[in-house]
Design brief:
Pathway: Cofactor biosynthesis; (R)-pantothenate biosynthesis; (R)-pantoate from 3-methyl-2-oxobutanoate: step 1/2. The chain is an alpha/beta fold. It has helices at 6-14, 27-35, 47-50, 62-75, 94-106, 122-130, 146-149, 159-174, 187-196, 217-220, 238-255, 269-276, and strands spanning 19-23, 40-43, 80-84, 112-116, 135-140, 179-183, 201-204, 212-215. Strand 6 (179-183), helix 9 and strand 7 form a beta-alpha-beta unit. The structure holds 3-methyl-2-oxobutanoic acid and sodium ion.
Length: 277
């Protein structure tokens, strides 16, 4: 596969070709994103919930995220690779944010970083972009701020909030973000915001008018069912396939159907005879 670069993304946006993005959190999930031909891959901090079992995305640390980024990068070669800056690592000041972004690129082997926020993060987006790291912004439902939003819920439902969303998206574009994620906003609003921007929008729960779409891989493949957002779509039921396979293994161990002859190593007859003599 040819490498997807930021220029590929810009060309797709210009030609109105939808951009596909999928999350990954380890070597195999990254490898499958690459093999499936998906354009861009996000090591999302949603891995805190779907891979590490936390209740929110907030507990995951920079070191943990970098550990996952490294693993994804070993398998995911052609897609443009983006790492998600975790809660608490970039909000305090742009200086710290630049340092964390540099670590994601140097140690995590990602090509770009994502951060949540609009206007209030514009200076940070600018600073990270200035040192040569492309930034994907994220507005609308920003899961890291779920406490102040009152949970994981749809955003921009009022005209006032929708206007604020547009201003946030324009602010991060102005600051140099190469694209912006719109999460959990009504389709009409997301479509309008997309039309007003020159950078691509990547929607999740934002309807069909965005420049691209992203889903969390564990949701899309049926590997996480503790919390299923309305906007997700399950394309496969890998969780059930895993349980079926594991059950069969368990039964075969109990019945001694496994391991069979073909799963065992042979030994030369003469050596065996010598061993027992
Ligand atoms: O963490 C994540 O997976 C994300 C995407 C859903 C955009 O932020
Ligand atoms: Na995220």
């Amino acid at each position: 596969r040819p490498k997807v670069t930021i220029r590929t993304i810009r060309r797709m946006a210009k030609q109105k070709e939808p951009i596909s993005m999928m999350t990954a959190q380890d070597y195999p999930s990254g490898l499958m994103v690459d093999r499936a031909g998906i354009d861009t891959c996000l090591v999302g901090d949603s891995l805190a919930m779907v891979t590490l079992g936390h209740d929110t995305t907030n507990p995951v640390t920079v070191d943990e995220m970098i550990h996952h980024c490294k693993a994804v990068a070993r398998g995911c070669k052609a897609p443009f690779l983006i790492g998600d800056l975790p809660f608490g690592s970039y909000e305090s000041n742009p200086e710290d944010a630049v340092k964390v972004a540099l670590r994601f690129v140097k140690e995590g082997n990602v090509e770009a970083v994502k951060l949540e926020g609009g206007k209030e993060m514009a200076e940070t987006v600018r600073r990270i972009t200035t040192v040569g790291i492309p930034v994907l912004a994220h507005v609308g439902l920003t899961p890291q701020r779920q406490a102040s939003l009152g949970g994981f819920r749809v955003q921009a439902k009022t005209a006032k909030q929708a206007r604020a969303l547009l201003e946030d998206a324009l602010a991060v574009q102005e600051a140099g973000a190469f694209a912006v994620v719109l999460e959990a906003v009504p389709e009409e609003i997301a479509s309008y915001v997309t039309q007003q921007l020159t950078i691509p929008t990547i929607g999740i729960g934002a309807g069909n008018g965005c420049s691209g779409q992203v889903l969390v891989q564990n949701d899309a493949l049926g590997m996480f069912d503790r919390f299923v957002p309305k906007f997700t779509k399950q394309y496969a039921n890998i969780g059930q396939i895993m349980v079926d396979g594991l059950k069969k293994y368990h039964e075969e161990v109990k019945s001694r159907a496994f391991p069979a002859k073909e799963n065992t190593y042979p030994i030369n007859e003469a050596e065996l005879a010598r061993f027992f003599e």
